[in-house]
Design a protein that fits this description.
There is one protein chain. With 533 residues, this protein is of the alpha/beta class. The chain has 19 helices and eleven strands. The strands form two sheets. Strands 1-2-4-5-6-9-10-11 form an eight-stranded parallel β-barrel. A two-stranded antiparallel sheet has the order 7-8. The structure holds flavin mononucleotide and iron/sulfur cluster (SF4). Iron/sulfur cluster binds next to helix 15 and helix 17.
């Protein structure tokens, strides 16, 4: 039986020495700098030098991560809530921004009925959102020549709820011995056929064209968190050309990129990848009480070993990760001229402590099974390993890495320099820019750790998710003033996850007054009380 852990709360760690002592007690590798560095001396203020995106440099080292919205219109257009979020992201000072959120490439691929849809019908709204973001950035930070904006393209697969906030309508890459039960997959008819996938690939190609038309600098082909294309990476048991071997499981990505290029669309391409995964977790029933979730424990996986149902997992011991295919995927990305590789992990739906370490669980989660700093360090160290792997591979590859099975990709590569080492100086051709995730739990010590990992090349950019809902200007304050506004720091209350899971709009309810004053605030309190989070 698991025991609930007694968390040492970050705000109780009054000094960097206290923070280091606590990190040491956890026996994890999570280094940090002694203080917050300001101005141009801060590693976070330095532009990216090895790559440009859409001809632009990335002006500093922090990014706003994609975060799905639950507050668009039911036809996938913008509302004032959505506009406000994009404006705040523009004001943040981050020089790489994933628009404001993931956009569904078709209506039935939405994770909720109010998610944005990237369609001809919504083109005007998307263009307006981009303009709001750019204008807000210009007003606060003057220069937009080094601001890079990406749209994340998604199909929610197993987690689709396109028509009703409480009704799952899953479409999956393959059957899953644990998740099918949880997400209402009861029939093989819910598995995509190869023919349906070919049509879906065209939806991605169309979406990328719309993104280019409305001025996005890149599209992110989402491969994370258990959503559809991530699930394809783990489709070992799927027969046919999109399942089984690594080559088959990555075919959808290759065909999307090939399709985008063949259509004459030169938009830059990024991929967000769950770099590793483990089995789903659940609250320990022995330690759960009415109104109190128990600590997380792994679901029983004894009946499904070797575990061939996840990507980046140790198949014989699936509570551990294995990066061998992750490295292979990173190499493939570089070969396909994926210019931005954004690394995340796991899934917020079935192992949230892996994906977004938090002190307080979301309503469909469990109490932390480990100190959340362990989860933060795990992601930081995996990103470091992937980046090191790519650098070594890049340096050792004797000929062009552009040997892919996709002819149009190859054609594009052929016009590029052939030797990777020589090519580094060519801004059109470079190692992908690496973005790391899951920094929000660091709270007061976020700048200290971020400075260290960027200064030492463990990642290129720090990607911020929840913290930017609560405190979008956290890094701008760190770099500009050398101090943070304590009252604005995200404490990982998980309300921004609990609210939408219960049909309410997204946002930082506890800290952003815009939500505190809404009627949804009271509803959320009642929901939280009932589930005991
Ligand atoms: C409300 C919410 C929505 C999210 N939606 C997405 C999404 O649509 N796409 C995505 O790649 N990640 C999504 N994420 C994950 C974040 O991008 C990020 O990886 C995660 O929150 C961990 O980073 P953090 O510690 O800075 O919050 C979402 C996170 C939150 C809190
Ligand atoms: S609701 Fe606000 S404080 Fe809580 S996790 Fe989300 S962003 Fe952070």
């Amino acid at each position: 039986m698991s025991q609930p852990i007694k968390l040492v709360r970050i705000p109780t760690l009054k000094t960097v020495a206290d923070f280091r002592k606590h990190v040491a007690s956890l026996a994890i590798s999570l280094p940090c700098e002694d203080g917050i560095v300001t101005g141009s001396a801060s590693p976070l203020a330095r532009p990216i030098e090895h790559a440009t995106i859409n001809g632009k440099p990335i002006g500093n080292r922090w990014a706003i991560q994609p975060m799905e919205g639950w507050d668009g219109t039911t036809t996938g257009g913008a509302t004032d809530d959505v506009r406000r979020r994009w404006q705040r992201f523009g004001e943040s000072g981050a020089k790489l921004i994933y628009g404001g959120e993931a956009m569904a490439v078709r209506p039935d691929g939405r994770a909720n009925p109010n998610q944005l849809i990237i369609s001809e019908e919504n083109k005007r709204d998307l263009a307006e959102l981009r303009e709001i973001l750019v204008r807000a950035h210009k007003e606060r930070h003057d220069n937009t020549d080094d601001l890079v904006i990406g749209f994340q393209l998604t199909h929610s697969g197993r987690f689709c709820k396109p028509n009703d906030k409480f009704r799952l309508e899953p479409r999956v890459a393959c059957r899953h011995p644990i998740l099918d039960r949880k997400f209402n997959v009861t029939s093989d008819a819910q598995v995509w056929t190869d023919g349906e996938i070919e049509l879906l690939i065209q939806d991605y190609v169309r979406a990328a064209k719309i993104a280019a038309d409305v001025g996005a600098d890149f599209v992110d082909i989402k491969h994370c968190h258990g959503y559809l294309l991530h699930e394809f990476l783990s489709a070992h048991t799927r027969p046919g050309k999109y399942g089984g071997s690594f080559e088959n499981r990555t075919r959808v990505l290759r065909e999307i990129i090939e399709g985008i290029r063949a259509s004459g669309n030169n938009i830059e391409i990024g991929v967000r990848l769950s770099a590793f995964d483990i089995v789903p977790f659940k609250p320990d029933p022995a330690l759960s009480q009415p109104g109190k979730l128990g600590p997380g424990i792994p679901e029983d996986f004894s009946h499904c070993l070797p575990y061939r149902y996840a990507f980046g997992v140790n198949q014989n011991k699936p509570v551990e990760y294995n990066l061998s295919e992750t490295f292979q995927f990173a190499e493939l990305g570089a070969q396909l001229v994926v210019k931005i590789l954004n690394l995340s992990a796991g899934s917020p739906y079935y192992n949230p402590h892996i994906q977004r370490p938090a002190a307080y669980p979301p309503s469909d989660g469990y109490q932390p099974p480990e100190d959340p700093l362990v989860g933060v360090a795990r992601q930081i160290n995996v990103v470091r390993s992937v980046k090191e792997h790519l650098s070594t591979w890049w340096g050792e590859t004797p000929s062009s890495p552009g040997q892919t099975s996709a002819p149009s990709v190859r054609a594009r590569e052929d016009s590029r320099p052939t030797a990777p080492n020589a090519a580094v100086a060519d801004p059109r051709y470079s190692l992908p820019v690496i973005i790391g995730s899951a920094y929000s739990y660091l709270q007061e010590y976020l700048p200290h750790v971020a400075q260290y990992v960027v200064r030492n090349g463990w990642t290129d950019l720090i990607g911020l998710g929840r913290m930017t809902l609560a405190y979008p200007t956290i890094i701008a304050d760190a770099v500009g003033k050398g101090a943070l506004e304590k009252k604005s720091i995200c404490r990982t209350f998980s309300d921004c996850t609990t609210a939408p899971r219960n049909g309410l709009i997204s946002g930082c309810y506890p800290l952003d007054k815009y939500y505190t004053s809404k009627p949804e605030f009271q509803k959320l309190r009642e929901i939280k009380k009932a589930v005991g989070t």
